């Protein structure tokens, strides 16, 4: 072993030197060179840092740098995230998206253009004026449609989702809210009163029938039983026979 090479290293190094740091790594770790000023130091990591991609070889696992416009990459020619000012498309980082695509500043990717989509018109609403359907002759009726898909930045915008038109109805008076409420209250009181009256009459009838029944039972107990009148034909029969 070279005098500058040590095997009692720290931090995942299999071999190392005082000047260059790690020279080789323990199994499954990635070797990467970090620049410190004019000097490069070897380190061993469980995964490659941002801006690098890992490659495994039989004798060593290495981290290599991505392209200059890539923030992270799967291989040198396939980026997974771009640096600021670039948009990701099919593994490449572009300053401008191709035709038919638009730049998404939220994900920093080139995405398909999305146009607005709406539902069909709803049926026309009842003819109204100032929120009422009575007390007028000329009013307005309205129909609406719902937005199913909002457009992207370069997509076709949504059309108007509300339409209104004039309408004519047969004029009718509005029932006053107070009067209508009063009538409903009077009807309710009258109904309750009638029900109470019927209930009282039924109670009185039951009480009268019970009293009559009790009176008849009392009379039957106090009056003596009447003696049965003799049958005249039976009383005269022996005398006639003897004669």
From TrEMBL:
<dbReference type="Pfam" id="PF15913">
    <property type="entry name" value="Furin-like_2"/>
</dbReference>
<dbReference type="InterPro" id="IPR051514">
    <property type="entry name" value="R-spondin"/>
</dbReference>
<dbReference type="InterPro" id="IPR000884">
    <property type="entry name" value="TSP1_rpt"/>
</dbReference>
<keyword id="KW-0677">Repeat</keyword>
<keyword id="KW-0964">Secreted</keyword>
<keyword id="KW-0325">Glycoprotein</keyword>
<dbReference type="GO" id="GO:2000052">
    <property type="term" value="P:positive regulation of non-canonical Wnt signaling pathway"/>
</dbReference>
<dbReference type="GO" id="GO:0008201">
    <property type="term" value="F:heparin binding"/>
</dbReference>
<comment type="subunit">
    <text>Interacts with the extracellular domain of FZD8 and LRP6. It however does not form a ternary complex with FZD8 and LRP6. Interacts with WNT1. Binds heparin. Interacts with LGR4, LGR5 and LGR6.</text>
</comment>
<feature type="domain" description="Spondin-like TSP1">
    <location>
        <begin position="116"/>
        <end position="170"/>
    </location>
</feature>
<comment type="similarity">
    <text>Belongs to the R-spondin family.</text>
</comment>
<feature type="domain" description="R-spondin Fu-CRD">
    <location>
        <begin position="11"/>
        <end position="110"/>
    </location>
</feature>
<feature type="compositionally biased region" description="Basic and acidic residues">
    <location>
        <begin position="175"/>
        <end position="219"/>
    </location>
</feature>
<keyword id="KW-0879">Wnt signaling pathway</keyword>
<dbReference type="GO" id="GO:0005576">
    <property type="term" value="C:extracellular region"/>
</dbReference>
<comment type="function">
    <text>Activator of the canonical Wnt signaling pathway by acting as a ligand for LGR4-6 receptors, which acts as a key regulator of angiogenesis. Upon binding to LGR4-6 (LGR4, LGR5 or LGR6), LGR4-6 associate with phosphorylated LRP6 and frizzled receptors that are activated by extracellular Wnt receptors, triggering the canonical Wnt signaling pathway to increase expression of target genes. Also regulates the canonical Wnt/beta-catenin-dependent pathway and non-canonical Wnt signaling by acting as an inhibitor of ZNRF3, an important regulator of the Wnt signaling pathway.</text>
</comment>
<protein>
    <recommendedName>
        <fullName>R-spondin-3</fullName>
    </recommendedName>
</protein>
<keyword id="KW-0732">Signal</keyword>
<dbReference type="InterPro" id="IPR006212">
    <property type="entry name" value="Furin_repeat"/>
</dbReference>
<dbReference type="GO" id="GO:0016055">
    <property type="term" value="P:Wnt signaling pathway"/>
</dbReference>
<keyword id="KW-0716">Sensory transduction</keyword>
<dbReference type="InterPro" id="IPR036383">
    <property type="entry name" value="TSP1_rpt_sf"/>
</dbReference>
<dbReference type="InterPro" id="IPR009030">
    <property type="entry name" value="Growth_fac_rcpt_cys_sf"/>
</dbReference>
<dbReference type="GO" id="GO:0005102">
    <property type="term" value="F:signaling receptor binding"/>
</dbReference>
<dbReference type="Pfam" id="PF19028">
    <property type="entry name" value="TSP1_spondin"/>
</dbReference>
<dbReference type="InterPro" id="IPR044004">
    <property type="entry name" value="TSP1_spondin_dom"/>
</dbReference>
<feature type="region of interest" description="Disordered">
    <location>
        <begin position="174"/>
        <end position="243"/>
    </location>
</feature>
<dbReference type="InterPro" id="IPR043601">
    <property type="entry name" value="Rspo_Fu-CRD_dom"/>
</dbReference>
<keyword id="KW-1015">Disulfide bond</keyword>
<keyword id="KW-0358">Heparin-binding</keyword>
